[in-house]
Write a structure and sequence with these properties.
Radius of gyration: 58 Å
Number of strands: 20
CATH architecture of one domain: Orthogonal Bundle
Structural class: alpha+beta
Shape: rod-shaped
Order of helices and strands: HEEEEEEHHHHHEEEEEEEEEEEEEE
Strand order of the largest sheet: 3-10-13-12-11-14
CATH topology of one domain: Helix Hairpins
Number of helices: 6
Amino acid sequence: MKIIEKISGFTIWKIKFVKIVLIGLLLIIIASVVTQLPVFNTAGKDDAHNLNPKEPGTDDGSIETFTAALQEASEEIEILGQIVFKEKINISSKVTGRLSKITVHEGDRVTAGQLIAEVERLPLEITLSQQKSELEIAQKAFDLAKAKFENAVKGIEIKLKIIHKARAELNDKLVSYQNMDRILKNKTTLYEAGGLSESELKTLKTQHTTAYTAYQLAKSDLEIQLVGYRDEDIKAEGMSVPASEKEKIELFKKINTKIERAELESARSRISQAENNIQSTAIMIKETYIRSPIVGMVAARSMEAGEMIKPESIIATLINITEIYLSMNLNERDIKKVKAGQIVSFNVDALGDENFRAIVKRITPVLDMKTRTVEIKAEMKNPGYRLLPGMFARAKITTGGREKKLLIPVSALAKNEGDNGEVYIAKKGLIFKQKVSTGKEYNSLIEITDGIQENDVVISKGRNLVYEGMKLRAQK
């Protein structure tokens, strides 16, 4: 009996000892868990009015919060682009020949009218000298043709006077013949009455015949002189006979100097041709000095001095980058949001975070069927040529006015699927998971359209350290 009581007492003591040990271990575990609870850091809260809050860094075992607030935000399109030149010109020569000099190299800046290259001029100068000699010969030929024409005109005037004289002589011969014919008739009557001898009558008949012959000769002479000066001659030229004698004489001059007039016009044409040849060669000589038509920069030099050049040969390529374009490919869903005159802000990787502003000038009216985009170009001045063609740009186009929106950091979203997401909010030291509806993103912030309200505190850093229902303690 005593032995049994001793054994029972030992067992009870053993049970009590085990309980004490278990309680001790439990307290140690609880203490360890408590010491490992995350720190609730309210000192890292972002400014609610800053649209570009500091991005959460790597997980350093702390939690940061952000107070949801209404902030002004503008609707923007983020788009990639490239700097392109506003104007590109291939410099070539209008003259075929040997390139004697090139005065520019790649990267050189040029002004409008600056000498770019020269072509050898000796062949053209020899041609010009020959053409000047031809002009002198043509001038002398013209002078000769002019003299011949003037002499022909004078000959017409003389001919008209001869015709006038022949007509007067014809009238005189006609009167003489008529008088002689009347005398012969009277004398014949007298001879028949016996008052005139036969020899006297024969003499009168001879005189009558002579007068008639003289009349006929004068008539024939006038008809010969009138050839080319008759009304039918005017009609034969396809012209109407004028009523005025003065106008008729001018027509006779024109008809009877056709050859001399043609020679004069031919000589005048040769002078004009020679002058045109000289002018053309002088222009070609001037074109041997090849100058820049624009203010710009030499993008490429394609030829060297001594090479033969043709009109299709490219000597150098110039680009005008005093003003440049920012070329961007805009998605078709955003086409209606962008119009000419809108501001584009951008920066280029080569110049760091420096911001630039351009104005939308051109919107291509044709959609690229492969990429479903349209090209838009924004223009800006480029002092100092700091922006160079080919530079990569990150741009933003503001497409709407500024509005108040409830914004939180994108990093606060524990889940983001389309327009739905989840965030962890902190209330009274406890963590709760909250479903939210999201809108558009603005840099590192995102619009919340439903689920939380202004002044709600969300976990913006350390989401992987929290869970729903967890208690947080503020950092001392």
